[in-house]
Amino acid sequence: MARDTRERIITAAATLFRRQGYTGTGLQQIATESQARVGSIYHFFAGGKDALTVEVIRSGGAAYGAMVGALLANGPDDPVEALGAMFEQAAVDLAATDYADACPIATIALEVASTNEPLRIATAGAFEGWLEGLTTFCHQITDDPTGARDLAVMVLTALEGAFILTRAARDPEALRAAGRSVVQLATAVRARSVDANGAS
Amino acid sequence: MARDTRERIITAAATLFRRQGYTGTGLQQIATESQARVGSIYHFFAGGKDALTVEVIRSGGAAYGAMVGALLANGPDDPVEALGAMFEQAAVDLAATDYADACPIATIALEVASTNEPLRIATAGAFEGWLEGLTTFCHQITDDPTGARDLAVMVLTALEGAFILTRAARDPEALRAAGRSVVQLATAVRARSVDANGAS
DNA sequence: GTCTATATCCGGATAGAC
DNA sequence: GTCTATCCGGATATAGAC
Predict the structure, then answer these.
(1) pLDDT of residue B26
(2) pLDDT surpasses 70 at A199
């Protein structure tokens, strides 16, 4: 049960942070939602709310990165189409969760960027991990290392930005439009790469 | 002085919300920062914190939209280059403000999207206003109405997403990379449009 | 319009019994 | 490991003197 309680606390905190943000969520609420006591949170996370939040960012970041990686790996064979499918899946998922479950750390990242250095560093680490995974994937589209990284940055920034607009408007159209543009850009990047290497 | 106090309250609230978020900022702090009393906030905003926040979103959204519009209008004559210059300017500005002053309403938008319907609607209105302005601008790049709107969505989502990554990493590289990709995409969109209308 | 005082509640954090 | 009780500060909001 010990391990379970710790996991339940992390899961509850992750869900609440995603929907209400970091400052908007109290330890009391996390305890209630995870069927634990506030004392238990301090038992497992001696550093208090910040220590718990670092763990939420770390584990949530890893889980989300793995989920996106699996989605791209199991999607269409054509990597450009796989990117488009990912945006479509995000649009479907977000609408299905009443526009609540978008990026697990974006809200926290903006809240703490200028106010809490340890948490800011944790969010930066999660984003960098995702970028590395996406960059590897984008190497299937272009051989140019800088081009692959730039494309990966564009995929992630477009996704994060579209999450904001989609949640605000409660309309997945921004996510779909961003997906269309990413596909168009990736197509252009690939054409350029093929061109540079000589057409096949 | 009456009018001044109200303005000072809105300005202070906007600055604090941008750096600490909505739930992370208290009325006491807003009062201190604006050299007013908490009672004065309730005098001017009978609806309390939410009424003040709606006004912050409304006026801040209009001001930011006007600023971006002026930046694009006074930038390079080539509209595609103007978009690239806008991202570069954003990178410079963000670094100059210690990575604090990015989008005035993005943090609020994510915090309230699932928890406060009146504020969520206010943020959606601000984003939609910006999108309309950007779409008009993008008509200089493509005649296709859907294409112009899609490009506008991409510009805004890439900008918002890059703000998140840039603030988290305290490194403007994400904004620069997003700018490069937006320029590349806009170039491809324009080529397509020219192609459809017959090359000049 | 401005300012003080205060009501009520919730925040994070801690001590110690069990 | 779990649970209760509690400290202390800060949150939003209100009442009323000036």
Answers:
(1) 97
(2) no
Q: Quick one: pLDDT at residue A186?
A: 98
Q: Which residue from A minimizes the CA distance to B188?
A: A188
Inspect the interface and report whether the beta carbons of B120 and A170 lie closer than 8 Å.
yes
pTM summary value: 0.97
Helices (H) and strands (E) in chain A, counts: 9, 0
- In degrees, rounded to 5, the angle at the alpha carbon of residue A56 between the alpha carbons of residues A54 and A58 is 70
**Can you tell me the mean pLDDT for A40-66?**
97
With beta carbons under 8 A apart, name residues in chain A contacting B184.
185, 188-189
Q: How far is CA A68 from CA A58, A71, A131, A137, B70, in A?
A: 16, 5, 11, 11, 38
Q: What is the 3-state secondary structure (H, E, C) of chain B?
A: CHHHHHHHHHHHHHHHHHHHCCCCCCHHHHHHHCCCCHHHHHHHCCCCHHHHHHHHHHHHHHHHHHHHHHHHHHCCCCHHHHHHHHHHHHHHHHHHCCCCCCCCCHHHHHHHCCCCHHHHHHHHHHHHHHHHHHHHHHCCCCCCHHHHHHHHHHHHHHHHHHHHHHHHHCCCHHHHHHHHHHHHHHHHHHHHHHHHCCCC
Q: Is the shortest CB-to-strand distance from A37 to strand D under 7 Å? A: yes
Distance B113 CA to C2 C1' (A): 35
pLDDT-derived band at B62 (thresholds 50, 70, 90) equals very high
Radius of gyration of chain B (CA): 19
Please state, in angstroms and rounded to a whole number, the distance separating the CA atoms of residues B102 and A97.
28
What's the pLDDT score for residue A196? 83
pLDDT-derived band at A200, boundaries 50, 70, 90: low
- B22, B157, B185: which to substitute to probe chain A, counting the most A Cβ within 10 Å? B157
A88-144 pLDDT, tens digit each? 999 999 999 999 999 999 999 999 999 999 999 999 999 999 999 999 999 999 999
